[in-house]
Known about the structure:
The protein is an all-alpha fold and 95 residues long.
Amino acid sequence: xxxxxxxxxxxxxxxxxxxxxxxxxxxxxxxxxxxxxxxxxxxxxxxxxxxxxxxxxxxxxxxxxxxxxxxxxxxxxxxxxxxxxxxxxxxxxxx
Length: 95
């Protein structure tokens, strides 16, 4: 996990103006609709599960993405670190 984080930071350093660039710009789908903060947070949490599930189905179904994702499945001991095991390019892939 540490090695992956270092590789990603070297390949994609944060911009000099800070991260995220949209800070204060009120960008994002949940900012389009006027909703209370709790409603927006609830909607984001509710939407996150299905979106992550679809992403995971795609990395198993698309051969090029599977080659990157199988690093996660190569862990022989299923434990707390299994979820943090990933190929650095998997993070920047389109899915």
